[in-house]
Amino acid sequence: MLKEILQKLPYLLVPLLSSCASLLFDPIENNINPVRHIEEATIDELVITELADVRTPTRKPTVAVYASAFTDQTGQRLSNSMYASFSTAVTQQPSAYLIKALKDAGRNNNGFFTVVERIGIDNLTKERQIIRSGREQNKDSNKLGTLLFAGLLLEGSVVSYEANETSGGAGARYLGIGISKAYRTDTLTIQLRLISVSSGQVLVEKLVTKTILSVSLSDDVFRFIEDGTELVEIESGVVRNESGSLALRSAIETAVLGIITEGEQAGYWSYK
């Protein structure tokens, strides 16, 4: 009787161990078909939702972000123990996240910043030249308005990316049945500066660090049955990695929120 129970024990524990792995990621709960699933595109919202609720100042500051003003300075590649990877750990266009954060700041209260285009300033200038040329040829007297100038510049960079800063895990095995959990953390640091165009003075500077967490959970059954003539071995597991782009967005939005708060304390903008 005891022998029969031991023989059937692995089969009884497999569903239990599989359910443990689903604690981290449940395809059914998240409406994901494990065989085939096509996700619809979504519009990204703010990670730091408090940024959308900041008050609108009496006079909205006009800011500009140039293409080379906010870049990745780490040169960090994606870590891979199997082969050399030429993909970067950080996006090479972090300025896109910065501009979105500036545009979304105070959006629930008519916005905080007036953001002017400088990333594609060459294309903008060429298009304005085409308009002027066409109006001159058609003898159109309507003049093209002047571009808005920025009183403030936002500059900075991704200054560090520490891969595998900490790692660890734990596991247990009994009678050929085991379960283990492991984790790893990376650290991302950005720097952001608010600069006065008229004086060149750095008005506010923020340094923000964000931790990126990766977790894996696995379980297995390893058992000989029928007097050692048959072997049962079953494994399952799941890994969840926090998005590096999401972490970068969070750090940028936190820095923008910090600049707004410190600027208010310094009296750079006022409210009604």
Task: Give a quick precis of the structure.
The chain is of the alpha/beta class and 272 residues long. It has helices at residues 2-21, 94-104, 121-137, 244-266, and strands spanning 62-64, 70-72, 114-116, 152-174, 177-196, 202-225, 230-241.
Describe what this molecule looks like in 3D.
Helix 2 (94-104) crosses helix 4 (244-266). The protein is built from four helices and seven strands; from the N terminus they run αββαβαββββα. The chain has a single domain, classed as Rossmann fold (3-Layer(aba) Sandwich), CATH 3.40.50.10610. The longest helix has 23 residues, at 244-266. Helix content is 26%, strand content 32%. With 272 residues, it is α/β, with parallel strands linked by helices. The termini are far apart.
Rg, rounded, reads 28 Å
CATH class: Alpha Beta
Helix-strand sequence: HEEHEHEEEEH
The main pleated sheet reads as:
7 strands, mixed
The CATH architecture name reads 3-Layer(aba) Sandwich
Helix content: 25-40%
Give the CATH H-level superfamily.
Answer: ABC-type transport auxiliary lipoprotein component
Coarse morphology: elongated
What's the layout of helices and strands?
Elements: H1 2-21, E1 62-64, E2 70-72, H2 94-104, E3 114-116, H3 121-137, E4 152-174, E5 177-196, E6 202-225, E7 230-241, H4 244-266
Parallel strand pairs: 1-3, 1-4, 2-4
Antiparallel strand pairs: 4-5, 5-6, 6-7
Helix pairs in contact: 2-4
Keywords summarizing the entry:
272 residues, alpha/beta, 26% helix, 7-stranded mixed sheet, Rossmann fold
